[in-house]
């Protein structure tokens, strides 16, 4: 395994003290923000509130993504990473959905909850680079 490959895809993934607690905390705040964001669209609370909660949702989402990428870039080749990339694509496309944005965010939340609570063998399955990439499988 070359130096770059070791850096991007460390065998077993990287971890640090307090990682699990940090991931759980950021995930909890992210879930709150995503829920309020969805509600702000469903209840038509106005653009100012929607923008604020979108910013917090994206920010906490980037925090979780950063922690997963520190662990291993293989995250992006796993089911959980691919689902995340789809969620990001949907968020980037929100301006084109108009009145359907609230229901779409609600569906996205359901998909996110199902995918994050799927069995480990599903979430951590490598979709791209199978046989060449071994993704990290730490819990949390």
Describe the 3D structure.
This protein is mainly α. It has one domain (19-123). The protein has six helices and no strands. Helix 4 (79-92) runs antiparallel to helix 5. The protein is elongated. The mean pLDDT is 89.
Low-confidence runs of at least 5 consecutive residues: none
* Terminus-to-terminus distance: 27 Å
**Large-scale geometry:** elongated
The major β-sheet equals: none
Mean pLDDT: 89
Q: What is the SS-derived class? A: mainly alpha
Oligomer: single chain
Instruction: State the helicity in percent bands.
Output: 55-70%
Radius of gyration: 16 Å
Count of alpha/pi helices: 6
Q: What proportion of the residues form beta strands (DSSP E)?
A: under 5%
Q: Tell me the count of domains.
A: 1
The counted number of beta strands is 0
Order of helices and strands: HHHHHH
Name the features.
64% helix; mainly alpha; 140 residues; 0% strand; elongated
List the helices and strands and how they pair.
Blueprint: H1 3-8, H2 19-42, H3 47-71, H4 79-92, H5 101-116, H6 120-123
Quick rundown:
This protein is mostly helical and 140 residues long. Helix content is 64%, strand content 0%. Helix 2 runs antiparallel to helix 3.
